[in-house]
Structure prediction request, 273 residues.
Amino acid sequence: MFNIYQPQKAKIISLNTESTDTKLFRLALTDKKNQKEFNFLPGQFVQIGLPGWGECPISFASSPHQSDKYFELAIRKVGQLTGQLSELKKGDLVDIRGPFGNGFDADLFKDKPLVLVGGGCGFVPLRPLIMDYLADKMENTVLQIFYGCKNEDTLLFKKEHASWNRQAELNVILEKPSSKWAGKKGLITDLFKNRVITSNSIAVLVGPPLMYRFVIAELKKRQITDENIYLSLEKKMYCGVGVCQHCAIGPYYVCKDGPVFRWSDIKDINNII
Prediction:
């Protein structure tokens, strides 16, 4: 088994522009044996880097079921490194370390109603869960997806929305849409109004910490227990291996013990959201 802490070369198989500042990279390790051993859970992440530019943590955007062949990362252009990554072409090489962290164990969600809540670029780690949940085609289950972002330019995975909506309940809302937007306008919590969510649902939240506070309040109104609420604190990560200690929260390191946490385990930590 290869060393997850040692950088591996990965080739860009394809690129797709998802929004004005985000591209979806499909990658494969150049060492085919290592790629076949490359297993991950939704919610986990890798460190992606370029020589001379450093590296940064990026969550997986693809299903683990294809991880023996490739994996996908949705990379938003927000700084020098991600700016350089956005200029790369098909066939170019990057450095990959990982996978790291604690992800969503999809087996915990099987045969249960699943509620996914994503805000902004936090919607990315939910895509693998959506893909796997729909691929399993489980009977008598319900998948409800709540997705909020700023405007049409920042919407991710638009080409997949129609397919998801045919198989699940997809609810999208924009905070500042253009006059051409025919959907809902407002904050993500507005999507919960008059929405039936069963109390035995499993809820998964990924987005800005401020969003968590209000979404958790909505879930609690529907009697969803703290043990059935999961969230990702990926925005707090830096080095990815618990060395820099920038991600310390209470007794935990987000990059090692998370980024996925059960709400019941961290709700008493001060200023967590």
Observations:
- The mean pLDDT is 91.
- The first strand starts at residue 8 and ends at 17.
- Helices lie at 32-36, 80-86, 126-136, 158-167, 209-221, 254-257, 263-266.
- Residues 106-266 form a domain with the Rossmann fold fold (CATH 3.40.50.80).
